[in-house]
Design brief:
Layout: H1 2-71, H2 85-90, E1 94-98, H3 105-114, E2 136-140, H4 151-163, E3 179-181, H5 185-191, H6 200-213, H7 225-242, H8 248-255, E4 260-263, E5 270-273, H9 279-284, H10 304-316, H11 326-329, H12 334-337, H13 357-368, E6 372-375, E7 385-387, E8 392-394, E9 409-414, E10 421-424, E11 429-431
Parallel strand pairs: 1-2, 2-3, 5-6, 6-8
Antiparallel strand pairs: 1-9, 4-5, 7-8, 9-10, 10-11
Helix pairs in contact: 3-4, 6-7
């Protein structure tokens, strides 16, 4: 029994020795492996830190480049447009329309700058920003002259701006120029020798310039009432000369003037006129639906706006009015010269759904193939607005100082999905 007990103890002791050896080896193995794993984990941590450092440096570089670009960014509204074929495809047509200027050259300049058309306001070297306005169409809806003291300056300024963008072919295709001047009733009066609304200050200034040209100014005392009347008479002679058939301004109104023009694309496609074109005007002109094609599908027929303008130019070309008598003025057809004609009518602004006026507006809009008709002529004392469900937009905001400089706004619509906006001289815009 004692021997059996000793054998068991010996056996257990042997197992303990085996277990100690096994644990010792396992411990060494674990310790060695642990060092390896620890080293491996340490190596992995170093790689991750390096990657993070690279990313952090890249972010810092991008941040500094962004700050650098902001610091040297061009002034607002003066972006450079690099002309490429891709840009041409993506560029959107922008339409700017300016209503009745009435001899206020200052507001004309300020609106052109505020809408991004020109590079500055003042100076004789104001430029049309060609790169930024490659697809911009500017329409002046008539009544540049009369009432204000800078009619001639305003007319000269906008014609000078237009000369900067004229390209070969524009002289022939007047209705597709980038800058288009419509005829207003006051331009019509200028070729009819109707001087009732020419500002006395402007006539005196024209008279002084004319007298100085011939060295006669010192003979007239500036404070003399008789002197001022004499200067007005000299100025009136100069005014009449400027609008004669063979003079630049006279030719502009008679031979290149337009009654209506179409510009824009998609929802911005609009017809622009001074007082408004109505279906009855087309009847007076004897224009039939088969005489025009607004789709330009065949390429053989002209669009309706071109047909209307040709009717006007054929009637006014070379006409010399020498007085205010009805016999002289009646040389022009009633749809041009009459009180309800295209330059004088007040019917469109009075249109409503109840009086049937909106039905006429919708009809002419459909005939012209546009979304709306945009007109001036009748002052909107609260600013530009629209009627007839947006089919007629009224943009004569009384901007001239001669009207108190009411709302000084321009019409702007851009792109296929654009909406008509009124933009003031500070660049602030609102939906019409």
């Amino acid at each position: 029994m004692l021997r059996a007990k000793a054998n068991r103890k010996k056996k257990q002791g042997g197992n303990d020795d085996f277990d100690d050896d096994f644990r010792k080896k396992e411990k060494e193995k674990d310790t060695f492996g642990g060092r390896k794993r620890k080293k491996k984990r340490k190596s992995g941590k170093d790689d991750g830190s390096l990657l993070k450092d690279v990313v952090a440096i890249g972010i810092l570089i991008c941040f500094f480049l962004f700050v650098f670009s902001l610091y040297f960014k061009e002034p607002r509204g003066q972006k450079v447009f690099v002309k490429t074929k891709e840009n041409n495809k993506r560029a959107r047509t922008k339409v700017i329309a300016i209503g009745d200027v009435h001899g206020d050259e200052d507001v004309l300049r300020r609106l052109l700058f505020a809408t991004g058309a020109t590079d500055k306001v003042l100076g004789e070297d104001v430029k049309w920003v060609k790169e930024r306005n490659e697809r911009t169409v500017l329409v002046q809806t008539g009544d540049v002259v009369d009432r204000g003291k800078d009619s001639i300056g305003s007319f000269t300024f906008i014609r000078d701006i237009r000369s900067q963008v004229l390209v070969p072919g524009d002289e022939d295709d007047v209705d597709r120029r980038q800058i288009r001047l419509l005829v207003g009733n006051h331009e019509l009066m200028a070729i009819q020798a109707d001087y009732r609304f020419v500002a006395k200050e402007e006539l005196v200034a024209l008279g002084e310039a004319q007298m100085e040209k011939y060295g006669e100014q010192e003979k007239i005392h500036p404070d003399s009432t008789i002197g001022k009347k004499a200067l007005q008479k000299v100025g009136l002679l100069r005014w009449k000369k400027l609008f004669a058939p063979d003079e630049a301004f006279g030719k502009e109104i008679r031979e290149f003037g337009s009654v209506v023009t179409v510009a824009g694309e998609g929802n911005c496609k609009s017809a622009f006129s001074h007082a408004g074109v109505l279906p009855e005007h087309l009847k007076e002109m004897k224009i039939r639906s088969e005489d025009y094609d607004n789709t330009d599908g065949s390429g053989l027929k002209k669009s309706l706006d071109k047909v209307i303008n040709e009717h006007y130019r054929n009637s006014s070309k070379g006409v010399q009015m020498s007085g205010n008598s009805w016999q002289e003025r009646s040389r022009l057809p009633s749809w041009i010269n009459g009180g309800d004609g295209v330059f004088w009518t007040r019917e469109p602004p009075d249109a409503s759904e109840t009086n049937g006026g909106c039905d006429k507006i919708k009809e002419i809009v459909d005939l012209l193939g546009v979304k709306r008709m945009v007109i001036g002529h009748t002052v909107q004392w609260q600013g530009m607005n629209s009627i007839c469900g947006g089919k007629l937009v009224l943009i004569d905001s009384g901007m001239s100082y001669a009207y108190g400089g009411r709302k000084r706004e321009a019409f702007v619509c851009e792109g296929v999905n654009g909406v008509p906006m009124a933009v003031d001289t500070n660049g602030k815009s609102r939906r019409i």
